[in-house]
Design goal:
Layout: H1 2-12, H2 14-32, H3 37-88, H4 96-117, H5 123-137, H6 140-149
């Protein structure tokens, strides 16, 4: 997910990158078009418009991330106690009810991955969620269910 990391790195450094872009635009247009002030004003306006667009996009994606983060965490909170209970039992097969709970968790993880892959989930949040997945997949019964179900390729490409 190199593209996701690049996008988040650009957003995190957008302040000084914007300053560099505007300064470079001013200097280059002034140097090459100093006789025509309209070109300098137009180029500077274009650069400032780009800065505004990037800041607005960053803010919109931050809002979306917050909405997704809150929703995903609320759904996980609803599953957590039952998942922990399942993970603490080490013998026997998963019951139908336990399997249903684990499938709900798998679906939640797949949705988180899909939004991460699209660039809307911060890599640090995704890393924390991945660590949680590894915790549950350490349980042999949950891991067997995952290994069987992931063959259906129904988790948007999520792999462990």
């Amino acid at each position: 997910m190199v593209g996701v990391r690049i996008k988040h790195a650009l957003f995190q450094n957008s302040g000084w990158l914007s300053a560099v872009a505007v300064t470079a635009t001013l200097v280059s247009t002034w140097q090459f078009a100093s006789q025509n002030w309209q070109i300098v004003v137009t180029a500077t306006g274009g650069a400032l418009s780009l800065v505004y667009f990037v800041q607005k996009q960053k803010l919109e994606e931050l809002r979306l991330f917050k909405e997704l983060f809150v929703e995903f965490n609320a759904r996980y909170d609803g599953l957590q106690d039952r998942l922990l209970s399942i993970a603490q039992q080490t013998d026997g097969k998963l019951s139908s009810e336990e399997s249903l709970i684990v499938y709900q968790y798998f679906n939640l993880c797949a949705e988180e991955f899909l939004f991460y892959r699209l660039g809307y989930i911060d890599p640090a949040a995704w890393l924390a969620w991945q660590n949680g997945m590894r915790f549950y997949l350490a349980d042999p019964r949950i891991c067997r269910l995952w290994e069987e179900d992931v063959k259906s390729d129904s988790y948007y490409g999520l792999q462990t």
